[in-house]
Please model this.
Amino acid sequence: MEAGNNNDRDDELNQPLINDNLRNEGLIPQLFTSMPALNGAASYLAETTSYITRCFSDFSAEPMSRDSVVNAEELATFSSSQTDSSLRASHSTFSETLNGITASPPIQAGTMRTATQVSSQNASALMESTNTIPNGTSLFQGLMERARRTVRGSADDIGWLQRASGMPPVEDGTKRFTDILDNIRHGVHKLPKSMVYLLVPGLFSNHGPLYFVNTKLSFSKMGLACHIAKIHSESSVEKNAREIKEYIEEIYWGCNKRVLLLGHSKGGVDAAAALSMYWPELKDKVAGLALAQSPYGGSPIASDILRQGQLGDYVNVRKMMEILICNVIKGDLQALEDLTYEKRKEFLKRYQLPKELPVVSFHTEAGITPAVLATLSHVAHAELPLSTNQPTKVPVVMPLGAAMAACAQLLHMRYGEKSDGLVTRRDAEVPGSVVVRPTRKLDHAWMVYSSLNEDPSEGDASQVCEALLTLLVEVGQKTRHELTMKDE
Model:
C-alpha cells in the first residue's frame, strides 16, 4: 500500500509543470505576447531616467567618461540584439502556434521594432544628456562665484559718479546753506512769490499720507504757491518723468510762472529724469532743481537685493520682492530696479542734466545712537469717534528712525560708507551741482516725516526744504549772471 502511494507521488513529481497543451495554448503564447510590452516598459523607464537626469544635471558630480559612453552604447546594442534574438528563438520554437495566430505577428513585429528603436533613441538621449553635465570643478567654481558676488556686493559701484571721467566738479554750498537756515529760523524768508514750488515725493509715498504735507502747509502760510506732485511713486523712472513734465507744463500754462522743483529720494531721480529727457520743452518753464537724499548714482540697497548671480538666487529673493511690490503695494518692480547702479549707469549714459540748469544736491548721515533707536516718526493720523461733535485725531507713528539706523550701520560695516540708511553720501552728489553736506545726523525719512521729539534748537524739515530752495534761487541767479557775462 505504501509502495503504491510512493509510486503515485513519484509520478506526480515526474509530471512536467507545464504540459504540452498549456505550452502550446496557454502560458508561452502569453509570455511571447507580453514581451513587447515589457520592452516598452523598459523604454519608458529609460526615458524617465533620462528626463530626471536632465532635471538634476546641475547636481551631478562628474561627467560621463568615454568608457561609460561605450558601455551605454553596448548596453543599447545588447538590449536590441537580445530582444531580436530572443524573439527569433521564440519564433522558431513555437512556429506551429504562431502559424495558428495569423493576426498577431504583424502587430507584434511592428511593436517590437518600434520598442527597439525607442530603446536605442532613449539610450542615445541619455548619453547626450550625460555628456552635457558639468563636472564637480565647474559646479564648485559657480558656487564660489556666487559667493564672491554676494560678499563683494556694491563695493565697486558706490561713488562711481565721482570716479567717472568727464563729469563736472561739484561746489560746496554747506556754509551758505547753514546761514540761510539760521536766518529762516529767525524769521527771515526770501523765497520769491514769482515762482511755483513743486515737491516730488519718493518711493512708497502713496502709502504715506503725510509725505511733504507739513512742508506744503508751511509754504502756504507764507503765501507761496506750492504743489505736491501726485505721481505713482512705485512706477518706473521714465514713466514718472513724463508725468512730471505734464505737471510742469500745466502749472506754467495756468499761472505763467516758472517752476522750482524739490525731489526727495526717488522723487529727485524722477524729477532729474524729466528735465534730462524733456529739457527742450521745459527749459523756459523750470528755474532749478534741488535733490534731497536722492540716489542719483544708484542705491546699494536696491542693487544688493536685485543683483543676479548671488547666493540669494537659491531662495529667489527677486521673486519675493516682486510679490511685495507688485501684489502687496500694487507697484512696479521696475521702480526699484531703476535705482540699481546698473540701471543708473545706463540711464545717465543716455540722458544727462543740462549744464545751464541750476542744481542743488543735499545728503545726510543717519545717527545710530540709542536715542535715535527710540525715535518715532509721525507718518499718518487716525480719526476716532471719541466725542459726539468732532472726531479725535490720533497720530500713527512708526519706528522709522530705528530702521534707518540699522540700515546705516549695515552699510557702514559692510562697505565703510556713510549713509542716511538707504542712500550713501557719495551717490547723492550730482555732478556739477552745489552740494550741501550738513554735519547734523538726519536719516532718510526725517525729511518728509516729522519726529515726535524734535529738537527746538534745530531747523525742522520744512525749514530745511525752504533753505534748500532759497539756496537754489541764489544759484540760479548766479548761473544766469555767468551766462550773461559769457554772451557779452
